[in-house]
Give the backbone structure.
Amino acid sequence: MDTKTKVLEVMKAAGKPVSAGEVEKLSGIDRKEIDKAFKELKAENAIVSPVRCKWEPAK
């Protein structure tokens, strides 16, 4: 499973908008990998930011 998929699963499981730091705590994935995945997911419009610095999967 790739990092982007893992990050999305953690975000869905959280059930609320989360920051990269929260994803790191919940998943154990390295922060640099999370930041890279966030950048790619944002470019694909797979995640949205309803609150400043917090992200959730796009509906």
